[in-house]
Amino acid sequence: MRSPAKFVLWLLPFLLTGCIHWPGRKQTQPVAPPVATTTAPKPTPTPEELPPSATTIPTQPLPSDSKPIPEPPPKKPVKHKKPAPAPPPAPEQAASPAPNPSVSAIGQLSTGEAPDLQKQTVDALNSVEHELNGINRGLSETEQKTAGQIREFIKQARAALTSGDVDGAQTLTAKAKVLLGELNK
Prior knowledge:
The chain has a domain of 61 residues: Substrate Binding Domain Of Dnak, Chain:A, Domain 2 (Up-down Bundle), CATH 1.20.1270. Helix 4 packs parallel to helix 6. It contains six helices and no strands. The chain is flat and about 110 Å long. The two termini are 78 Å apart. The longest helix is centred in the C-terminal third of the chain and has 22 residues. By secondary structure, the chain is mostly helical.
């Protein structure tokens, strides 16, 4: 087939289906018929009368085959004992300075820790401080803030050790170690 013949064959179905818009021809769309609105009278509801047996309420309790539920026995009052008075301080504790009665910012102060635990904490503090001072490279602004926070933790840990709070000093030392690890990455 020649090319104009192919063109006509392709164009012919469009012409036959009326897809081409003719200027004088109106396209009409079918419209649904209007809905008739008629109002029918609504049925009136009629109340149902219940039989007399359904409307009476018994005034006497119903007989039951079950045993009556016994009341639980009354609870005995709980007696609280007064706590024993605190023993007087040992002579070595009396010589140490009295801890501040206000609560520390790092938590509850501990008492009577083992001397080797205090030594371990001091050694860890010295190690963190030595590693921090051993950083020779230039630090960015955020790294300088982190180094300042580490120094603040070291300062607070030493203050906690002097007040006798070994647990608080250990916690602050651990925080300083974590920040130092992030700084060394």
